[in-house]
Design a protein that fits this description.
heterodimer, A: alpha/beta, Rossmann fold, 7 helices, globular, B: 13-stranded mixed β-sheet, six-stranded mixed β-barrel, 26 helices, 18% strand
């Protein structure tokens, strides 16, 4: 699904050049659950942003579903992003002025889904994330865990094939964190590809493969062995 | 597309009520000012366009060239209308009009009152001016002598209803029959009247008519046949001149040219002699300019506040982008909010304007009759709607553009620097606001000081506790001296004098011959003179420097006329012994003076005219024929008792005429009505400008503190107290305020200086006032920043650091 070949990302600031990513090679298969780990500043989030078409790269080749991303204009990238990719952030990034249901509905607006269908799909998602009883609440009226559940709901409402999660449990306590990880794992079971950046070995254990980054370079890759029970 | 965003925009505005209220207030004020300006401009620029066929109606202006001096008059001779109509087939109808300058005393069974704006017209008036008749026949209304056509409101005042055809109404001299009732003329009528009296028909022969063309007595109006232009009449005037005017032209050695001015061009026409007061384009543009400025202030304000708030929306719009919103979507969202806000503000603005014009004494203050009348000004609604949309669009576009530009990555990685780099345009905008406010405030202070200066200036006479009674009907004019005598008997009255006009209201000018100091020669001098009566100097407390004032006995002694002169005249003539000097006047055709008077006294200089003019040489004359005004000095502690007593005495002597008086002090201030109006208008605008700028300042302060929430939290943790933070934030604003003030100060000095040129006596433009305004602005700015940052710093906790 995703193929990164020798991707490098440079930052220039006051004449000093910093390499955020250096010759990164990475493949993500359809239906895979991948974790990216590494210390702060190693380039995890940059890598995730490039995969999410939010950021650009200077060198290398990035192929998303057989399309060379460097050949695409902003409009097409926007189209891919809204149709195929869902995002989950550490600090939720819900819109304060919108209710739970409206936050979830938002991506469908931009996809120009008709109103009746939007309503239907939102109800389904609300049900899936068990937030039906809070649908008219505003984000500030919810706990962190509930907010993140809404964020996940928003990420999946457009039924994307890829979910990118940046430290999704970073602002949650362990019970809430487990809850979110269970949701992501369930989505993955249903066929959605998940790429997650995390510090937590526990969270990473939900994934099938872990890529470790250090100073912008991939240092190791290993399969996660799941206990049978 | 925009419509679909409205529900969300509504919600956002409702959720941020305080922000919405502040913004709405600013925009509503700006729009209200614009609407008032639009009403004002509409009135000014549609003068006389309410007449049917106004584009075919012209007034005859007369250009006389006598003895080499060229003078243009707004009026023309009595016979002009009739002769022009006879001579030119292109003239469909012609009429003349005469405005009565004094107020006329009217009485019906239910009301007796002085009325102004009464005119006399010939029978053809309504053939030229097609005013709607509610009752009566326009063709016959002015045909009979002693008929009167009343405006609807005039009729209702005197008879309680408008259907009063055939009823009688009296003035102090005549009885008139009501022959027609017309709709009230709109205020923007150059030749305005509320009652029209028929011309007493005394047919003139053709010789008299021709002679009358060389005098200016009436206003003549022509209505041309369709398809004919004023130029045709003017070009063909020589045949008229040859036929009616050339005979006398040789005798008086003069020439005459006729100019036709379109009726709708009179209001802003070039000034001519004997015209009615006309509009001043400079004021109109000035007013429009200030209105526009306030609207700009309001827009800037919105931009400032919206940008300040958009800091909090950066993440929101970034997230929307991540979820698939395009830049266009974001712009549309922000614009829909500002357009909605502007439309609500428009509704509010209409309410404000309605309150201003219908409830508050705004019209009185600016001397206009503005009203929110969509029928009379049908373009107002579409105009203000488009203005509101435009304002909404302009004010929303900067925040819309800047929010749509922010990339999600920058927003999520919290790069606040991106906003700080953008703060320059905002600083400029707020600087502009402060600049305008400071300029307006300083100008207002200067104007206020000048008006105070005028109020308190020593005029050279004492107007305190002096009552003025203007006498206008023939009965009381006839008995004016008896009235004065009667008032003098009251113990509550110190002194009474009669005269031609109230002190300070102006003088007349004439040519005099004055005896030189050597006693042999006479010098011709054009000098001001003022007709006064006995005891004038005592009543007005004007110091007598030599000789004596007029006494009652002088009135009887008509064989040896006497005059009093002021100090300035003595200086002008370099008289060492002014008493006994002779003054000649009233010259005949051969240029010889026919009257001679002796100087019996010298008084100190006083302001016989308004302070717009310098104190000039003045001759006080004594002529009982000119007496029209009683000036009465009452005992200071018995003013009201004296008024009662005077009314009793008045009613006993002239029961048919109501007792009407004014205080000289107040009358004097009315001479500065125009300036008072200007300074009042400036005061209103000042308040508005200050209000809006304060809002703008709040916006800037919240923007600056919003940018530095995290920094404030860190400094808090490290031990900074609230005031340290206030100073920190304020440092950034000081430069904005100071540079604004540097531009504003000379600007306001310039404006004030220009305005002060209207006055002969004026205050100085003192730097200390500018300094005070600067200090005040800095202080107010500090206050706002302090309130804002102290609140923020108390609220900011370690959470901002997480």
């Amino acid at each position: 699904m995703i193929r990164l070949h020798n991707i490098s990302k440079l930052y220039r600031s006051q004449g000093i050049e910093t390499r955020a990513l250096n010759d990164v090679d990475l493949r993500v298969q359809e239906g895979e659950f991948l974790s990216i780990m590494g210390p702060s500043g190693c380039g995890k989030t940059t890598l995730l942003n490039i995969i999410g078409l939010l950021d650009t790269y200077e060198e290398g080749l990035f192929v998303f579903r057989d399309q060379d991303i460097s050949q695409l204009d902003e409009k097409t990238k926007l189209q891919i992003r809204k149709e195929q990719i869902g995002f989950v952030f550490q600090n939720f990034n819900l819109i304060d002025d919108l209710t739970v249901a409206e936050n979830i509905e938002l991506p469908l607006h931009y996809l120009k889904v008709p109103r009746s269908e939007r309503r239907e799909r939102v109800l389904k998602v609300l049900d899936a994330i068990s937030m039906g009883h809070r649908r008219e609440f505003f984000p500030y009226q919810l706990s962190g865990g509930q907010q993140q559940r809404v964020a996940v709901g928003r990420a999946i409402v457009s039924e994307p094939s890829l979910i990118l999660a940046d430290e999704p449990t970073g602002n949650l306590d362990s019970a809430q964190g487990n809850d979110i990880m269970e949701m992501l794992a369930r989505l993955n079971d249903q066929g959605t590809t998940v790429v997650m950046v995390t510090h937590s070995a526990h969270d990473a254990s939900y994934s099938q493969r872990i890529v470790r980054l250090l100073d912008g370079e991939v240092t190791s890759e290993k399969k996660v062995l799941h206990a049978p029970f | 597309m925009l419509l679909s965003k409205l529900p969300f925009a509504f919600r956002t505005l409702y959720r941020h009520r305080l922000y919405t209220l502040l913004n709405l207030g600013g925009l509503a004020i700006g729009l209200a000012v614009s609407i008032v300006v639009a009403l004002y401009l509409h009135g000014e620029f549609t003068y006389d366009q309410h007449w049917t066929d106004h584009e075919r109606i012209y007034r005859v202006n007369s250009e006389f060239n006598l003895n080499g001096t060229e003078e243009v008059y707004g009026g023309s001779g009595f016979g002009m209308a009739q002769l022009l109509e006879e001579h030119y087939p292109e003239v469909e109808a012609a009429t003349h009009l005469f405005h009565l300058e004094n107020s006329i005393f009217f009485r019906s069974d239910s009301l007796r009152q002085y009325e102004e704006q009464v005119a006399i017209a010939d029978a053809h008036f309504f053939e030229v001016f097609n005013q709607q008749f509610l009752h009566g026949n326009p063709k016959e209304a002015l045909a009979e002598p002693r008929s009167i056509v009343l405006s609807k409101s005039f009729a209702e005042r005197y008879f309680g209803r408008s259907d009063v055809l055939g009823r009688k109404i009296n003035t102090s001299n005549y009885e008139y029959t009501v022959s027609g009732i017309i709709e009230d003329l709109p205020e923007n009528t150059h030749h305005f009247f509320q009652a029209l009296i028929s011309q007493a028909a005394s047919p003139m022969d053709s010789h008299d008519l021709a002679v009358s063309l060389w005098q200016v007595s009436h206003y003549t109006f022509l209505k041309l046949e369709e398809g004919h232009s004023a130029e045709e009449i003017e070009a063909g005037f020589s045949s008229f001149f040859d036929r009616y005017m050339s005979g006398l032209a040789d005798i008086v050695q003069g020439t005459y040219k006729l100019h036709l001015r379109s009726i709708s061009d009179l209001h802003f026409g070039e000034p001519v002699n004997y015209d009615l007061p006309s509009g001043r384009l400079a004021y109109v543009y000035g007013f429009a300019g200030i209105g526009l400025l306030i609207l700009v202030l309001a827009i800037i304000n919105y931009i400032n506040m919206a940008t300040a708030r958009s800091l909090k929306r950066i993440r929101e719009s970034a997230m929307r982008k991540v979820l698939g919103a395009s830049k266009f979507d974001i712009r549309l969202l922000i614009l829909s909010e500002s357009v909605l806000m502007s439309l609500i503000a428009l509704l509010l603005a209409f309410a404000v304007v309605e309150a201003l014009t219908a409830i508050l004494p705004f019209n009185e203050a600016i001397g206009k009759q503005l009203s929110l009348n969509f029928e009379r000004f049908p373009e107002l609604l579409p105009l203000s709607l488009s203005l509101a949309l435009l304002v909404g669009f302009i004010s929303g576009s900067y925040p819309a553009l800047s929010l749509a530009r922010v990339s999600p990555l920058d927003a999520f990685t919290n790069k606040k620097g991106i906003q700080r780099r953008n703060s320059m345009p905002r600083k400029f905008l707020v600087g502009f606001q402060v600049c305008v406010s400071v300029a307006v405030v300083t100008t207002a202070i200067f104007m206020y000081r000048q008006m105070e200066f005028i109020k308190n200036r020593n005029l050279g006479f004492n107007a305190d506790h002096v009552l003025v009674i203007n006498v206008q009907d023939s009965t009381s004019i006839h008995r004016i001296q008896d009235l004065a005598q009667n008032f003098r008997r009251s113990t509550m009255i110190q002194s009474v004098t009669v005269g031609a006009s109230a002190t300070g209201s102006g003088t007349f000018r004439s040519l005099f011959e004055l005896e030189e100091e050597n006693g042999l020669d006479f010098r011709r001098l054009s000098s001001d003179f003022l007709g006064v009566g006995p005891r004038y100097l005592e009543t007005m407390e004007i110091p007598l420097l030599a000789g004596r004032g007029f006494r009652q006995g002088d009135l009887e002694d008509s064989l040896r006329p006497k005059v009093i002169v002021n100090r300035a005249l003595v200086r002008e003539m370099a008289w060492e012994r002014p008493l006994g000097k002779m003054v000649r006047s009233a010259f005949d055709e051969s240029g010889t003076a026919t009257q001679e008077a002796e100087v019996i006294g010298v008084c100190d200089d006083f302001n016989a005219q308004s302070l717009h003019n310098k104190m000039a040489p003045l001759i006080l004359t004594l002529n009982r024929e000119t007496f029209r005004v009683l000036q009465i000095k009452v005992e200071p502690d018995q003013v009201y008792a004296a008024l009662d007593d005077m009314e009793r005495r008045w009613t006993a002597m002239v029961p048919d005429v109501p007792f009407q008086f004014s205080f000289l002090n107040k009358d004097l201030l009315q001479m500065y009505e125009e300036e008072m109006r200007q300074s009042r208008l400036i005061l209103y605008l000042t308040i508005i400008a200050i209000l809006i700028s304060l809002l703008g300042f709040v916006g800037l302060a919240s923007f600056t503190t919003g940018l530095r929430t995290k920094e404030i939290a860190i400094r808090n943790v490290l031990g900074a107290n609230g005031w340290d933070l206030v100073n920190l934030i304020y440092k950034e604003l000081v430069s904005v305020i100071l540079s604004a003030v540097l531009i504003a100060a000379p600007l306001s000095v310039f404006i004030t200086w220009q305005w002060l040129q209207n006055f002969a006596y004026r205050t100085s433009v003192e730097p200390i006032i500018i300094l005070i305004t600067v200090m005040l602005t800095l202080l107010i700015g500090y206050g706002i920043v302090a309130i804002h940052s102290l609140t923020i710093s108390r609220r900011t906790s370690v959470q901002s650091l997480v």
